[in-house]
Amino acid sequence: MKKVKSFFAKLLLVIATVNIFLGGLSNFARVHAETAAFNMDARAVYAIDAESGQVLYQKNATKLYPIASVIKILTLGVIEQDIRNHHLKWDQKIKITPAVAKMADDWHFSNVPLVKGQEYTVRQLVDSMMLVSADGSTEALALADAGSTEAFNKKMQAFAKKAGVTDAKIYNMIGLPNGDLGKHKLKGVDKDAENLLSAKDVALISKYLVEKYPETLEITKQKFANFDVTKDQQYLMTNVNALLPQNGFAPKEGEIDGLKTGNTDRAGKCIVSTGTFSGRRVILVALHTKGEWNDQSKMQQDFYNKLVDEYQPVQAKKISDISPKIKAVKVTNGKDKKNTQIKLNKATTVWLPKNVKLGATKPTLKLNGGQQSLEAPIKKGQQAGEIVLHIPGLPDFDIPVYASQNIAKKSIFN
């Protein structure tokens, strides 16, 4: 009987220990989750400072998902690139084919009316593509530019690669399932195939677009524009971006001037917004947001409001602004030097909580390859590694550092 009692006593001890352990894990998960400054109800999110690349929030950011009409950001990139390269002109007229007119007349899709045989300028079609997500206009632009969906896809892939995106699966310029393009669908591709990109991919493309082609924002910040369907018929377009200034979900500080929304059954409601806050351009991508359109807009508004309420950009001009302890790194096999000074190549701006200084981010130096020292020879200006900032509420941020002098390699004779 004693052995039985002893067994049950031990069993109860094990159960209690497991419960404590699991409770500890639960508390850890809760505390860890609470360290994030933002919590956005979407399948995937990626928010960055456009200049520094600092990640402000991320959630499933590298997983590929359908992005619906958000792909039109990439479509616009190709069009603007080809205008810059004189392949197209803003005032160039594009004649509407029967197939494009059919797309534009389909009530299932987002559109402005396009009349078969009528001509519209590239500017008109671009405005309608970006303000009201007109699918027929998008198709007309892509076909006029490249001749086919397949040929335009190749241009989209090349543009995405320039932006640093290599894993995107691109099927068309509109964002619809392949089969919805009718005559212009891709042959040999499933009718349900949709473009697949990650939230990070979309942010990188958006960043590249607004940096390389700033005229984009002159288009996307328009709240209203008239579209001349015929000489006797005009269509007033209202930008669907509810975060634009004076709109219902405009952030209380800063100003949104882009970029694009999208929606399909598989992609759900998606949104990319960008604007300037505390003098910094921020890009926020959210894929498959939960709730209705107003919920989506409110969620983005809340993000920007919290960003400016609780965080501020702080500039580091030199390493000593970050930490006085990080000055030099060891060098192995150096001819005359056993260490090298390191420096920032340029001033870097970092978003920090308003009550936190750079030195309080527990900066740590991480050398290339995770090494403890640099191997000679070393060239002045070569990247030595990164200073990692551990920022409360935000993901860690890496600031590159560089060698400040040349160091020759020790020869076998000395």
What are the main properties of this structure?
414 residues, serine-type D-Ala-D-Ala carboxypeptidase activity, Peniciliin-bd_prot_C_sf, 5-stranded antiparallel β-sheet, Peptidase_S11_C_sf, 2 domains, disordered N terminus, alpha+beta, Peptidoglycan synthesis regulatory factor (PBP3), Domain 2
Q: How are the secondary structure elements laid out?
A:
Elements: H1 2-34, E1 42-49, E2 55-59, E3 65-66, H2 72-84, E4 93-95, H3 98-104, E5 119-121, H4 122-131, H5 135-146, H6 149-162, E6 196-197, H7 199-212, H8 216-220, E7 224-230, E8 233-238, E9 255-264, E10 268-277, E11 280-289, H9 293-310, E12 311-316, H10 319-322, E13 328-332, E14 339-343, E15 348-353, E16 364-367, E17 374-375, E18 383-389, E19 397-403
Parallel strand pairs: 13-17
Antiparallel strand pairs: 1-2, 1-11, 3-6, 4-5, 7-8, 9-10, 10-11, 12-15, 13-14, 14-19, 16-18, 18-19
Helix pairs in contact: 2-5, 2-6, 3-5, 4-5, 5-6
CATH topology of the largest domain: Beta-lactamase
- Determine the fraction of residues in helical runs and give it as a percent range: 25-40%
The number of E-state strands comes to: 19
CATH level 1 class label of the largest domain: Alpha Beta
**Biggest sheet strand line-up:** 16-18-19-14-13-17
Helix and strand content put the structural class at alpha+beta
What is the number of independent domains?
Answer: 2
Ends: how far apart? 80 Å
Rg over C-alpha atoms, rounded to the nearest angstrom: 27 Å
H/E element order: HEEEHEHEHHHEHHEEEEEHEHEEEEEEE
Biggest sheet overview: 6 strands, mixed
What's the number of helices?
10
Spell out the CATH superfamily of the largest domain.
DD-peptidase/beta-lactamase superfamily
On the 0 to 100 scale, the average pLDDT is 91
| Reported CATH architecture of the largest domain | 3-Layer(aba) Sandwich
- Beta-strand content bin: 25-35%
